[in-house]
Amino acid sequence: MPGACYSLITMIKRAFLPLLLLTSGLASAADLTEAEIRWLTAGSAVLAYAKQELKLPLDITVQPQASATDVPLALGYQDGRCKLVLSLRGNPKAEDILSTVPIAQRSLMIEAMVAHEVGHCWRYAQGVWHALPAGFEERREPSRAAEELRDTRREEGYADLVALAWTQQRHPEQYASVAAWMQQVRQPSPATGSHSTLAWLQLAPTGAAFAAGVPVFEQANLLWRQGLARDQ
């Protein structure tokens, strides 16, 4: 329906233009595709929380065309700001990652993915990216590549726990579905892969694993430390 589409685009403009860094291929938020609107809408509660309540330095970039190596959603850090990059155009991975999810639940999984990326932003903004908490000693690795893989895996584990903690806080009745999907997504990774986070996901089989009454990032941190103890 044209009217409904216009209303949705207007909502996206109002909610995200302060965040959006439109690339040269996009003239305005009206140029967003239906898929981009759907993903931004699904993640809107997380993005609003990150920007308005946490005051995280977060910008959103919409790629006019994805490259062969782009994942649908990624986060980087540049000049003191987090860069959430949406790469959906011409990207089959955007469909593949949700292919096993019922249509009615896809927005929920996208929301979890956005929460995962905001978890990365939190770590960057706190100045603790690739840093261990106090009390942990860094183990030696045989090579620099092995160290980088280990460090990336730890950050992915933390971000996955943020996604689950967010889900437990906002959608507790859907926790089991999100946790099962995340385990499925991570399962194909080899045990030493950079996104092999099962050691952390297995610590949160139900939402009861997260401490009540504390912020999402602290909830994730408490379980993350348990996983790090196993990873030593």
From TrEMBL:
Record keywords, A-Z: Signal
Signal peptide range in chain numbering: 1-29
Record protein name field: Peptidase
Provenance organism: Duganella guangzhouensis
